[in-house]
Design brief:
The complex is a heterodimer of chains A (226) and B (224). With 226 residues, chain A is mainly alpha-helical. Helices cover 80% and strands 0% of the residues of chain A. Chain A contains nine helices and no strands. In chain A, helix 7 packs antiparallel against helix 9. Chain A is elongated and about 75 Å long. In chain A, 46% of the residues are buried. By secondary structure, chain B is mainly alpha-helical. Chain B has eleven helices and no strands. The chains are: A mainly alpha (226), B mainly alpha (224). Chain A: Belongs to the binding-protein-dependent transport system permease family. HisMQ subfamily. Chain A: It is found in: Cell inner membrane; Cell membrane. Chain A: It holds the Pfam family BPD_transp_1.
């Protein structure tokens, strides 16, 4: 047996691959579902907090800044472990899936708030003043004039951050979520062969390479003209 | 409320597990001191090579960078740690962590530095060459300092992410802070050690988060 054949036997064994491909595909479904739920909730909450911060209520803003700082400073895996292994002690038990979802949502919320807020503060003061001068109230000025510009500024950094956090769905494998990595690891344990893990890695590549390339494209496309 | 304090902020248990957590904290710092310079070195190398004009060098390197930016670091780590031994290559826990971080964070640093290098006007290296500086001198004294300055917030942000990412080493049983906290938790049947670990991470990284938030705000606000 040549070295290549031995390598293929181990890492790309066709029999093992055929047997465990459905498991990895099911994992891919879980990863995509988890990612979509995290993105929806994280971005919505982040935008909501940034808008709330625009009202300029001092005590509320301190609270927002503190929460955002906490979830920017803590490693996502620590938050997942804390929710999954810690909360049951307080009588609140959550499945691995929802624990991962909650942790990643909080992290994305924090980063998104920071980026949206930076976008809002980057809109020139004159835009606010012009809106008010035209007779618009605070809220219409915010939603119709300031936010559209702020979001445009926020898109490139937001896309990259969202991709990075979405890749964190793999951390769910630590708390027994059978997303791609979790499924691949069980496949490897059952078959005694690393092929399922190779398939899992391929699944991530197929899923994320287009996203990474699209992210780079968006970054140039939306780049603020200096 | 009392139950919550008992389960999460139990002073006795915090004291009892402090020794384990202290070891974990030292290992986390050691990991950070290992992974940040490794990743940065790899990033500089990749960035410098991928901004060369030769396409047969640039395209494969871009593909390499994109590949390792697309794979979640935990997947890479598990692959190196659990799958490679089947091929007769056993890197061990520390070796796997080192290689995974070299590839993953190297790719991220490379992408950031590439943007930085491209933001340096072409006239700069040309002028430096015209003044008689050698190629390596142009890179070290002219291009890289400006490139780094232009993307400094991104570099700091990525470094913060790398330090946070060292927590995944717990999955391959490196006794860093999170791993030790989980050990302490399973010995004491109490979530306090994990809470304490979270507080330690926060206190350790908060100053950098604050600094970063200022730098980023200043940069975006500067675009007015």
């Amino acid at each position: 047996m040549t070295g290549w054949q031995a390598f293929a036997q181990n890492f790309l064994n066709p029999e093992v691959a055929a047997q465990y491909a459905p498991m990895i595909l099911a994992g891919l479904g879980v990863t995509i579902l988890l990612a979509v739920l995290v993105i929806l909730a994280g971005l919505t909450l982040g935008l909501a907090l940034a808008v709330l911060r625009a009202f300029g209520l001092r005590v509320v803003n301190w609270g927002i800044i503190f929460i955002v700082d906490v979830f920017r400073a803590l490693p996502p895996l620590v938050i997942i472990v804390l929710i999954y292994f810690g909360l049951p002690a307080a009588g609140l038990s959550m499945s691995g899936f929802w624990a991962t979802w909650l942790a990643l949502t909080l992290v994305l919320m924090a980063f998104a708030e920071e980026i949206f807020w930076a976008g809002i503060s980057a809109v020139p003061q004159g835009q606010w003043e012009a809106g008010r001068a035209l007779g618009l109230h605070f809220l219409p000025t915010l939603t119709k004039i300031v936010l559209p510009q702020a979001i445009r500024i926020a898109v490139p950094p937001l896309v990259n951050r969202t991709i990075a956090i979405t890749k964190g769905t793999a951390l769910g494998s630590v708390v027994a979520v059978s997303e791609i990595l979790g499924a691949a690891q069980s496949g490897m344990a059952f078959s005694g062969n690393p092929t399922p893990l190779t398939l899992g890695a391929l699944a991530y590549i197929v899923l994320f390479i287009p996203v990474v390339i699209a992210g780079r494209w968006i970054e140039t496309r939306f780049a603020w003209r200096r | 409320m009392n139950d919550f304090v008992q389960a999460f902020l139990n002073a006795e248990i915090a004291v009892a597990s402090s020794h384990l957590l202290w070891i974990g904290l030292l290992q986390t710092m050691l990991l950070a001191l290992m992974t940040v310079p490794l990743g940065m070195l790899m990033g500089v190398l990749l960035a410098v090579l991928s901004t060369q004009k030769t396409p047969w060098l640039r395209w494969p390197l871009m593909a390499f960078t994109d590949f390792f930016r697309a794979i979640p670091p935990l997947v890479l780590l598990i692959f190196l740690y659990a799958a490679l031994p089947f091929g007769g290559i056993d890197l061990g826990a520390w070796g796997s962590v080192a290689l995974a971080f070299l590839l993953n964070t190297g790719a991220y640093y490379a992408e950031i530095l590439r943007a930085g290098i491209e933001s340096v006007p072409r006239g700069q290296p040309e002028a430096a060459r015209a003044l008689g500086l050698k190629r390596w001198q142009v890179w070290i004294f002219v291009v890289l300092p400006q490139a780094v300055r232009n993307v400094l917030p991104d570099l700091i942000s990525n470094t913060l992410e790398v330090v946070k990412l060292t927590s995944i080493a717990s999955v391959v049983a490196v006794p860093e802070l999170l791993y030790q906290a989980r050990q302490a938790q399973s010995i004491t049947y109490n979530a306090t050690p994990i809470m304490v670990a979270a507080v330690i991470y926060f206190l350790l990284l908060w100053p950098f988060v604050r600094l970063l938030s200022r730098l980023e705000n200043r940069r975006i606000a500067g675009r007015k």
